[in-house]
Amino acid sequence: xxxxxxxxxxxxxxxxxxxxxxxxxxxxxxxxxxxxxxxxxxxxxxxxxxxxxxxxxxxxxxxxxxxxxxxxxxxxxxxxxxxxxxxxxxxxxxxxxxxxxxxxxxxxxxxxxxxxxxxxxxxxxxxxxxxxxxxxxxxxxxxxxxxxxxxxxxxxxxxxxxxxxxxxxxxxxxxxxxxxxxxxxxxxxxxxxxxxxxxxxxxxxxxxxxxxxxxxxxxxxxxxxxxxxxxxxxxxxxxxxxxxxxxxxxxxxxxxxxxxxxxxxxxxxxxxxxxxxxxxxxxxxxxxxxxxxxxxxx
Length: 298
Description:
Largest sheet: none
Order of helices and strands: HHHHHHHHHHH
Shape: elongated
Number of strands: 0
Radius of gyration: 26 Å
Oligomer: single chain
Distance between the termini: 77 Å
Helix content: over 70%
Strand content: under 5%
Structural class: mainly alpha
């Protein structure tokens, strides 16, 4: 395998700052949800309607209808004729849109006020289910490939990362300390003993550990790169470019190791989320039915 730091490496402007990363899809989703909730709150402050008048009533009906349509996604799994109606990712996308639109209409309908005990149970159950759905989407996308519903396998992730080709060893041979640190990090994380303590550490602590290792490697790269620069007569811009490429390789390797190590952890968390999410859905359905009956009776 050819070296990344040889003379044929693509030129990277040494003085230019790395391109800024655009916010990920997750960030955009959360920003949109936040904006929609704030918009719903603003509408409720305008005094255009009350929960009990005609407009407020039909907003509640519309929100409840969207919430009912949410069940079309899990229903698809059990009703065979529905399997032929579109791809899973479109069903899942519709499920997410309904899961946001329904609660928003209910919030607007209520004008962010709770008038009775059954309304309080229904409202808080809805908020828990909606919040749980947002968390579930976050975990889901770390176990599945985009929205296609096809699970990534550990072997696919390893192959994509190049871990089975010893990429870091072949390209960082000039810095044995960095090479050893990277391989030790991979061995420790990929060989960690399975269990909830390991899975929780891999989700919440491992990313911070990755950055600690990255900055140590970046510091350890300085001396061997300066030695290479003196031996090969690199200019200052050449040295800066090769330092950038070496750090990029280290970051990509560490990120790949973290992705592979976290795979099982995200799977376990998704299974746990599903167990916790389902009871709140049933509570929401029961409390919503009681609320609707109470509204029409009294």
